[in-house]
Amino acid sequence: MTTSTRGTQVPAVLVLEDGRTFRGRAYGAVGETFGEAVFSTGMTGYQETLTDPSYHRQVVVMTAPHVGNTGVNDEDPESKRIWVSGYVVRDPARTPSNWRSRRTLDEELAGQDVVGISGIDTRALTRHLRERGAMRVGIFSGAAVTDEAAMLSRVQEAPEMKGADLSAEVATKEAYVVPAIGTRKFTVAAVDLGIKGMTPHRMAERGIEVHVLPATATLEEIYAVAPDGVFFSNGPGDPSTADHPVALMRGVLERGTPLFGICFGNQILGRALGFGTYKLKYGHRGINQPVQDRSTGKVEVTAHNHGFAVDAPLDKVSDTAYGRAEVSHVCLNDQVVEGLQLLDRPAFSVQYHPEAAAGPHDAAYLFDRFVSLMEGQRA
């Protein structure tokens, strides 16, 4: 059972799987939680981060020291609930200040039973994760705090992110439609692997009627909506486990339907083309990651949330079962593959989040590129 910490100083302990511990105060719900410890470098947009299904089973460490300044509103969530397993902040706001705020972040976390911790040195924790890599973690507060050996044992028994098949856990169970804004120009079938609410909205703004389908959808269900294009969303987990989405995407590629994938969808395209995937040491998370579009040379500041990447050659065009493919975007921090495109079929993907509800909006043109593919196919 969890309870709210508002107005209290309940002791809390964060325990990493390598034995390092941090002591602070409970934030949000009191109890215990487990997940993969990752850090996010965004200074704004915490509400969008919390409600992003891609963060399922992750404990998010905020590198920005002050969190909760704008409270929580009812307009910005990217899904119907908070998906992070736990939340770590240094200095939570005492009183939120924003005209849209309806409640404090602490109240929202407690109301959704999300166990967090505050008052710890998040800079030291971030440096530790960057040097040692993302790892399993537990947050314990109130009666859940016991001796360190017992808490460490609980953490080490928790499941790892590598090998986790999670997309079906966060995806919609029933199909639904997001209507086009204004005149309907195209119909898109969107496979929900952990889709954010802003993504179909960005397409709807461009005259696209979006049919959001469960992660378990079949090829027949995709083409039952007579799509002009097919979209594969972001989502959590290890892409090496996503055999059904890979088979589904290969079916779309065989038919030559315009295809666009983001984040997990990029990894699915990589696998569909025959490339491997691998786990990054600590991943990319935040809203300030520099990516270069290799077709134009332009550098975009982009929003990321991924702990896995596609293993594709940066220096050559690859031959695949669906024609030639190349890396279209690359991260300038570490040369990680951030996008793929087919040269002989209308399909492309990026590893980041062009919908970027909290900003930045440098990558919004990718939705226009998807529209151009569908226009070209129709012509």
Topology:
Blueprint: E1 3-4, E2 11-16, E3 21-30, E4 32-40, H1 46-50, E5 58-62, E6 66-67, E7 86-88, E8 91-92, H2 105-111, E9 115-118, H3 122-132, E10 135-141, H4 148-157, H5 167-170, E11 176-178, E12 186-191, H6 198-204, E13 208-213, H7 219-223, E14 229-232, H8 243-255, E15 259-262, H9 264-272, E16 276-293, E17 299-311, E18 318-320, E19 323-331, E20 337-342, E21 347-350, H10 365-378
Parallel strand pairs: 4-5, 5-7, 6-8, 7-9, 12-13, 12-14, 14-15, 15-21
Antiparallel strand pairs: 1-3, 2-3, 2-10, 3-9, 4-10, 11-13, 16-17, 16-19, 18-19, 19-20, 20-21
Task: Provide keyphrases for this structure.
379 residues, alpha/beta, eleven-stranded mixed β-sheet, seven-stranded mixed barrel, 10 helices, 21 strands, globular
Concise synopsis of the structure shown:
With 379 residues, this protein is α/β, with parallel strands linked by helices. The protein is built from ten helices and 21 strands. Helix content is 22%, strand content 33%.
